[in-house]
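User: Could you check the structure of this?
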Amino acid sequence: MRRLALVAATENGRRSAAHLARVLPGAEVYGGPAKEALARAWREADGIVAFLAVGATARLVAPLLGDKRTDPGVVCVDDARRFAVALVGGHEGGANELARRVAETLGAEAVITTASDVTDHPALDAFGRDLGFKLERGSDVASVASALVSGETVRLISEWRYPLGPLPENVVPGAPQPGVPSVVVSDRTGPFPTPSVVYRPPTLVVGVGCSRWASEGEILDLVSRSLQDAGLAPGSVASLASVDAKRDEAGLLGAAERLGVPVRFFPARELADRPVPNPSEAALRAVGTPSVAEAAVLASGAELVAEKRKSPMATCAVGRLPVRGRLYLVGLGPGDEALIPPLAREALARSEIVVGLAQYLERVRHLLRPGTRTVEPPLGREVERAGVAVEEARLGGSAALVSSGDIGVYAMASPALEIAGTDVDVVVVPGVTASQAAASLLGSPLGHDHASVSLSDLLTPWEVILKRLTAAAEGDFVVSLYNPRSKGRDWQLEKAKGVLLEHRPPDTPVGIVRDAYRPAQSVRLTTLADLDPESVDMLTVVLVGSSRTVVRAGRMVTPRGYEL
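Assistant: Sure, the predicted structure tokens are below.
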């Protein structure tokens, strides 16, 4: 977890710092005089939020500046909490992202001045960071960044497709060309064109077997020679892998620490089931499996690209992990843009393609980065919609599938997850559900146990719906009725009303909310007996109270049972 230092010099600043310390993971208030607190934070923290003027902060940090690759990111917040200014370490120090997070938390405006951010170009010193990319030392970031921002053609050179998100039009995938600036994503050692920026994706697994007391140096030397001979970059090593019996092997653990990667251990019986090109009777006698290095690579889900080689006390093999695309399943909440969660905005910005109904895409089109494609299969083609997004992710790209409300509630997450396999990384972004939105406008009808039932029998037989509704009525749950009535389904709500009246009194409060958080919003309170199905349509959510639900000061409330 990143450590975040909060420094303040005024009472307002201290209040704001205390609030951030409560809500941001890893945040800590640094007390004392601002100069001393900043100096201490500079040594200890990964990021700093200074509740000071920009000029004052600049003077205080100027003597502390060293290397942008290691300096912490610094964000300044004014005393009125109007602006969060990324001052130092915008990309590598994480100040730009920190400014956005602080601004969202405090209700301020993020001020970011780095050229790539303000022109919507990828920041080369942070490119692919969320995918684990490492920037190769010696990369010509300045030349390629200049070409990128200036609109010159920049080549994207990669053997595989990665979920990089939308890229500017002047970034063109293809073969290298002499003199054309290039962005290279590769686990190979090159050579690469100049000028270029080279990123190392975490694609390599190194399987290691070793005798007791094998030294860290011997293991590191063997790994280095194996990678070099295979033309593979050490910066792309994602992990080491070995057999369970080596969990306490000091040399192996030390080598992993030196490489800055974890070690995965597998039971001998699992490794023994893996067919390998170079089995060993000695390994079988020693640890119960005929292969450690090669089998551990395969057990990690990697394809063997460099077979086992030996040193006196160790063995080593190298494998490549498949590239996994990314599928975002995004709930946009109800109609108000302010209720689109920050995670949803971030997911949309990272997606090369966004799939959804036209009315949903229209709501978020301004949140998409230049170059993002949209696909709008019409209502009734839900499986096609899910399939388009999943297939894009399967090909290694990044795709977002969007729904209103929460995508996991009567929406598109279910069909997408039924199709998606283990070859795709899935990120589910929750949203405010229709029943939550309606409930907030009515008061607190969901304050105790509640159930949701969709009255649409297009995908669920009416007999099943009736059984579930009856159970909710008998259990005295507050009931949220989704899809209550349409032109083609005009009788189900009347039937549902009858079922509920069998189990609760006629004066049970009922809330009817149409177009929640949209310009045409309407909110009405009535009773179960007076509920008029003719006044309800598909844009409406009906909330039926339990036997304990009451109306207080015009608000629908289901008590928790506290003594008042």
